[in-house]
Amino acid sequence: MPGILHLTDCMDVCLKNNTCKAVNFETGLCVLLRTLPGEQTDPSAQSQYPVFTIFAQKICLSDKKRVCNKGWAFERVKGFEMKKYSKKSVKVMTRLECMQMCLNENDFECRSVNYDSDVNECSLSDMDRHSITYNSLKSRKYGPSSGSIDYMENNCIEEPKKLCDFRPISGKILKTVDSVYENVKTIDECKEKCLSSPYRCHSFDFGDPTNSVCRTSHLDKNSLSHIENPYIEIPGATTYELVSCYNDISNSLEFEIKMKYNDVECDVKQQSKGQFTNDIVIQHHDMIVTTQDLLLNVHCKYDLSNKSISNNVNLAVDGDVDTSGSHSETVSSPNVTMKITDLFRSDISSAQVGDSLLLRFSILEKSSPYEIFVRELVAIDGADLSEIVLIDSMGCPTDSLIMGAMDKSDGDGQILEARFDAFKFPTSDVVQFKALVAPCLP
To answer: InterPro entries, alphabetically (predicted)?
Structure first.
């Protein structure tokens, strides 16, 4: 069926056809299938055209809590899994039962599941590819599985109305998209098409030098790792990917904002042991700052001191007991600073591209028994917050030409430093650095 420009339209045709079991969709082409993979032929085989094929299979689910009004219920990624985010594991006999368990979950909002067909285990999670951080993706917390595990993402969840920012990616567009809209005049109109899609839209592109149309997709860099070469490079074209959203509250004085104090992606600051602070802006207008806006400075204090718990127990000891001494001590976590210096370890206030510098991490308390280990070091563009990973989750440099390895300074494990040549992003002269620093005992 040529000429179908929306994946949801292709699925609707299949839903109304009793003999249709699945569809193959490529932008502008919808193929109805009477067989499933493994029955006679393999309709999900790779396309011979310069696109990638989306395969959708008809299933029957019953949501006890609500009706799923989205274009599809789940997205399945064969041979991939979400690691370390499971909140509940249950035994089920089929993949369909696993999806049903996710829809029926009452204790938390189930955003994704892993299904292991070898042991019939269904792992439910309140996280998905778009809710975990980009650093978590880089550290393979979502990635290829052992082979028997499939990842399935819930598309039925109702996310709140939001104001969203998109980051432009120049020079390339997706080979296959979910929807194509003609006669769209502006980028803002195309953005609105994406945000009002009957699926969780995460990217769109608007026109290229030869064709001015709006195309939207549920895929972005976070969810394309299982597709080989998903983009077409076109000079002058731009893809816009969803990067952040803000809570948009309408006609209500009650709302809720969640901030994790230990999330490096959040702007929560630790002032002292057990004391955290953050700034929250309540803005009346969607796009501009006015005198009616309210800035809240939030302080939270937690009692992190050690507690002694005692209980009376009647014990009887026969014979003599040798007396032994005991000693215990509590050592607080060290305070660590990060700074950029020249090669002589002198402080600097600015640098030019190409200057030889040192990035240094050091423990302030010289009496501390701890040493430190640095991982997940990220450089962030000061303008659009785009980022590159310099040191991975294992503590190894991703590109030694940009950032060298973290080494002890003069053999001191309390001071780590890495040599690098100053660099910048194309859109900003400001480069921010962020890292996870773990204390460890030598």
So the answer is: Celegans_DevNeuronal_Protein, Pan_app, ZP_dom
Where, residue-wise, is CATH 2.60.40.4100 in the chain? 336-440
CATH architecture, range 162-247: 3-Layer(bba) Sandwich (3.50)
Give the model's pLDDT for residue 437: 92
Check residue 45 and give its pLDDT.
Answer: 46
Q: Does domain 2-154 have CATH number 3.50.4.10?
A: yes
Contacts of 235 by beta carbon, 8 Å cutoff, 6+ apart: 171, 209
Of the given ranges (29-43, 376-390, 406-420), which has the lowest mean pLDDT? 29-43
The DSSP symbol for 73 reads S
- 280 alpha carbon, distance to own chain's centre: 22
Q: Does residue 253 have a pLDDT over 80?
A: no
Contacts of 193 (CB under 8 A, 6+ apart): 179, 181, 184, 204, 214, 216
Assign 162 a pLDDT band (cuts: 50, 70, 90). low
pTM: 0.56
CB contact set of 376 (below 8 Å; sequence gap of 6+): 135, 138, 139, 264, 389, 391, 392, 393, 435, 436
Question: How is residue 324 written in tokens?
Answer: 């032994």
- For 173, 321, 358, the CA distances from 318, given in Å and listed in that order, are 80, 8, 64
Q: Spelled out in words, what is the top-level CATH class assigned to the domain 336-440?
A: mainly beta
| pLDDT-derived band at 60, boundaries 50, 70, 90 | confident
Report in angstroms the alpha-carbon separations of 290 from 24, 73, 247, 387: 50, 41, 18, 31
